[in-house]
Amino acid sequence: DTAVSQTPKYLVTQMGNDKSIKCEQNLGHDTMYWYKQDSKKFLKIMFSYNNKELIINETVPNRFSPKSPDKAHLNLHINSLELGDSAVYFCASSPSQGGMTEAFFGQGTRLTVV
Amino acid sequence: GESVGLHLPTLSVQEGDNSIINCAYSNSASDYFIWYKQESGKGPQFIIDIRSNMDKRQGQRVTVLLNKTVKHLSLQIAATQPGDSAVYFCAERVAGGYNKLIFGAGTRLAVHP
User: Fold this and answer.
1) Torsions phi, psi of B84, nearest 5?
2) Which of A20-34, A50-64, B41-55 is predicted with the least confidence, judged by mean pLDDT?
3) How far does CA B20 lie from the centroid of its chain?
4) Percent of chain B with pLDDT over 70
5) Is A50 at the interface with chain B, CB within 8 A?
6) Could you give the domains of chain A?
7) Does B32 contact chain A (CB < 8 Å)?
8) Domain span including residue B46
9) What is the mean pLDDT of residues B6-26?
10) What's the confidence (pLDDT) of residue B5?
C-alpha cells in the first residue's frame, strides 16, 4: 500500500505551459505539504495545509497554487512554467501539529521545463 | 536566514565500519529533529527522531545525538552496509511553526565493500 502517492513521477514540458501534480495520502493525516528539491538536493518547504486550510505559504511565486479538495489530497498547479521551476517536487503528510510527528514523503515528481 | 547543516559532502566508509554524519542547526527554538535517508529516485525516508529535551536516542543500528549547547546533531550508523548508501538529511522543526521542517543540504554516504 502506497502511503503518500504523487502523479506523475516524471513531467517534461515546455516553458509557458501550465501543469498540475497530484498527491494523495491514505494515512489519515491532517497535514500535507509540498517541498521542492533543487539540483543540489536542497529540500525546501513550499506550502502546508491542515484539514484543507493553508497554514504555511513560503515565499513562492504566485504561479504556484496549491489546492486541497479534502484532507487526503493536495494538488499543486503551476502556471506559466519557467526553466527555473525544473526540480523534484515532493508531497508529504504528517499526523498532526506538535509532538514527535515526522513527515512521510511521496516518491517525488521530477519536473523538467525545456 | 534559515539554515540547517551541510553542503552535500560525501562520506566514504568501508562496509562493516561505523559511520557518523554531522549536522549543525541554527534555530535555538527548534524542538524536534529528524534524520531522513534518501535513496536515488526516491523520497526521503524517516530514520530516527529526537525531541529537544533528549540528548540521545537509539534505534536499530542507528543513534542520534543532540547537543543543544552547540546546536549540533549527529547520526551514527553501526556496522554500515551497502544498503545504507544514500543521501542523509537532518531536519529541524521550529516550535510553533506548524510542523514546518527545515532541511539541511544533506550528506552523501558511500559504502564500499
Assistant:
1) -85, -10
2) A50-64
3) 9
4) 93
5) yes
6) 4-113 (2.60.40.10)
7) yes
8) 13-96
9) 90
10) 47
Task: Find residues 70-109 of chain B whose CB sits inside 8 Å of chain A.
Answer: 87, 89, 91, 98-103, 105-106
| Mutate: best of A31, A41, A96, A104, partner B, most B CBs <10 A | A41
Sequence-ordered list of residues with C-beta below 8 angstroms from that of A61, at least 6 positions apart, any chain: none
Confidence of residue A99 (pLDDT cuts 50, 70, 90): low
Residue A1 cell numbers, joined: 500500500
Q: Is the pLDDT of residue A98 over 70?
A: no
Single out the residue of B73, B64, B68 nearest to residue B23, CA to CA: B73
Q: A108 and B42 in contact by Cβ < 8 A?
A: yes
Number of CB atoms found within 10 A of residue A14's CB = 8
Q: Which of A45, A50, A55 sits opposite B101 (nearest CB)?
A: A45
Q: What is the CATH number of the domain that holds B22?
A: 2.60.40.10
B44-91 pLDDT tens trace: 999 999 999 999 999 999 999 999 999 999 999 999 999 999 999 999
Cβ contacts of A105 on chain B, cutoff 8 Å: 36, 43-45
Q: Which amino acid would we find at residue A88?
A: V
In this structure, is residue B69 part of a structural domain?
Answer: yes
